[in-house]
Amino acid sequence: MKPKSKHILITGTSSGIGYGAAKELIHRGYTVFGSVRKKEDGEKVRTELGERFIPFVFDVTDQPAIDAAVEDVKKHLNGSGLAGLINNSGISVTGPVEHLDIEKVAYNFDVNVLGIFRLTKAFLPLLGTQKDHPTQPGRILNVSSVAGKLCAPFMAPYTGTKHAVEGISHCLRRELLPYGIDVIIIGPGPVQTPIWDKGGLDEFKNTRYIASMVKFFTYFVTSGKNGMPLEECSQRIANILEASKPNVRYALVQGKFKNWTLPLMMPPRAVDKFFQKNFG
């Protein structure tokens, strides 16, 4: 039997879910190649997580930088393969469709969707599609969201990207069956990360949607700050990576029945009424 690799690539490790996953996997003995967009962020994370965190400065929209990262990762692997790729990088563009900047919407898809295509395509050989792959096949974890299944107002661009991630993941998993590379969807609900302190509604303050937006995003941010602790989310992601017989999708949601199972069971028109009643 081929040996198991203890090397993981995670995108978006400067903070949030990517950072938490890197920290937990390093604790479990892995070496983590972590993408960041700024050199200083990489140095900061390496100082905090230690020498088994190896930062790579690239953006998931930059194909030449990704290609260069592949060559650098190969050098570090020194003939080994990757145990996993966690496609975590993502951004959220929000707002009423009537007033959205289409270029911002396109960028949301470029990062969240095409970013997964770029990274996965580039690193598939190191995960197991290359001839005479030296280690056991790796595993791909694509970070989706509850928004990969559930839909809320003012979230169309982000929700669209996460619905795309879900479909891509299922197709990719079936393509890679002959190589033994599994593809698993991670669907977090709100997680306690710094993301909830970002953003604002000033761009839409003069629109007729602003009152509803204030109600919705006040609820949304409050849910986020009271969401799943990052440590718990990180441990569950690491467990999924190491599971011998993983599911194809995991919903990492606090209060799972109320916030995940029940909304999926409700007729869409009933969900419409919920939003109309609570957010106008």
Termini Cα gap: 60 Å
How would you spell out the order of helices and strands?
Answer: EHEHEHEHEHEHHEHH
Look at the structure and name the CATH superfamily. NAD(P)-binding Rossmann-like Domain
What's the CATH architecture? Answer: 3-Layer(aba) Sandwich
> Structural class, please?
alpha/beta
Q: Give the CATH class.
A: Alpha Beta
In CATH, the topology is named: Rossmann fold
Q: What portion of residues is helical?
A: 40-55%
Query: What's the domain count?
Result: 1
Give the neighbour order of strands across the main sheet: 3-2-1-4-5-6-7
Q: What low-confidence regions span 5 or more consecutive residues with pLDDT below 50?
A: none
Characterize the largest beta sheet: strand count, sense, and whether it forms a barrel: 7 strands, parallel
Give the C-alpha Rg. Answer: 19 Å
Shape verdict? globular
Give the rounded overall mean pLDDT. Answer: 95
Total number of strands:
7
